């Protein structure tokens, strides 16, 4: 069999190893030059391209193209991405179940609806999970560009606490209400703090400036801490202070330079504890063990301990808690881990702790593979926020720390905290998705 005669001169085409040659246009003559895929023996260009191409989509099938595009929206080749995402979703799922169980009695007493708190938490989860996935798709440069805006928005929301919209709860003024919507802006401040320090610390460190220049990004951080501290929310202040120290550590700041913020933070905590009669009572009841005043400051830690102890190894069964019948304050929030231990037993408590350990491993793997300081600092700061707060909450329930009033991330009831935590995980997921790529 003979080939058809060529039209015009054959242009030179450099072969590319491992790839199928596609028809090329000879710029000098403007004539289509044949290649291996366009010869009579190959069966035509389109057929060969469909058999060997990456897309694998047949012509005339736009609906298949749409399905492939939608399926790749949240695709990632990083195992750290899936580990972090899966662990977070499991914790949210466990949290919804336990909020339903722990809040049923109080919800019924409040509005004759066993599912009131659960429905609110589920709505925030339905909003927060897509928000997390959306944040995971945002380019890394977005967080650098908008870091200042996040800080300003967070400070603006926190200022609403000190207006007539502010709400006092358990001696703290850290919420505001607009209509039927209640929010805790300090949760948004945590995310703004992590992004701000992650973006600004590498800039000051790279300039090799003076100590004042290196610590300059801490000025907005101190302002945010003081604003929360003015509302008497010492637990949140401690978490934010730990986040700030974590950012300095992951930025490579020396311990000598870190001693200044550490000393200021410890002094502030001691001062706020001394000037508050409620906090002093909690601290004295903690250090004055055994705590037997079950009608005063010891009420909550005592009933939390009794709830954990009554669960045994396998628990009393989901929904069968006795402590939630108005015996344990904040059963669906700060002390939800006690309900987990009571209803699901030691096994359930270990599962929850294990999930937070896996969460820690996921964060550490992302930090280890990070190729730019911003990724390392933000991921490390968010890790200390979520995992550190989780273990502080668990330590309080186990009576290893005095009562601080911090919730269990992803599990405790609280819409604003859930939204902020899921968004923070989304930020880290965006870094996990970009693993192995140098960010400039």
TrEMBL record:
Catalytic activity from the UniProt record? [GlcNAc-(1->4)-Mur2Ac(oyl-L-Ala-gamma-D-Glu-L-Lys-D-Ala-D-Ala)](n)-di-trans,octa-cis-undecaprenyl diphosphate + beta-D-GlcNAc-(1->4)-Mur2Ac(oyl-L-Ala-gamma-D-Glu-L-Lys-D-Ala-D-Ala)-di-trans,octa-cis-undecaprenyl diphosphate = [GlcNAc-(1->4)-Mur2Ac(oyl-L-Ala-gamma-D-Glu-L-Lys-D-Ala-D-Ala)](n+1)-di-trans,octa-cis-undecaprenyl diphosphate + di-trans,octa-cis-undecaprenyl diphosphate + H(+)
User: Where does the protein principally reside?
Assistant: membrane
Q: Where in the cell is it found?
A: Cell membrane
Mark out the compositionally biased spans (Polar residues).
21-45
EC assignment: 2.4.99.28
The region called Disordered is annotated at 1-58
Pfam family of the protein (one): FTSW_RODA_SPOVE
State the pathway, as annotated in the record. Answer: Cell wall biogenesis; peptidoglycan biosynthesis
Q: Name one GO molecular function term.
A: lipid-linked peptidoglycan transporter activity
Query: What name appears for this protein in its UniProt entry?
Result: peptidoglycan glycosyltransferase
Keyword annotations for this protein, in alphabetical order, are: Cell cycle, Cell division, Cell membrane, Cell shape, Cell wall biogenesis/degradation, Glycosyltransferase, Membrane, Peptidoglycan synthesis, Transferase, Transmembrane, Transmembrane helix
Where in the sequence does UniProt note compositional bias of the Pro residues kind? 1-14
Organism, scientific name: freshwater metagenome
- Bilayer-spanning residue ranges: 81-102, 114-134, 146-167, 187-206, 218-251, 257-277, 336-361, 382-404, 410-432
Task: Note the coiled coil stretches, chain numbering.
Answer: none
What topology does it adopt in the membrane?
Multi-pass membrane protein
Gene Ontology CC annotations of this record: cell division site; plasma membrane
What InterPro entries has UniProt attached to this entry?
A: FtsW (IPR013437), FtsW/RodA (IPR001182)
| GO BP: any one term | peptidoglycan biosynthetic process
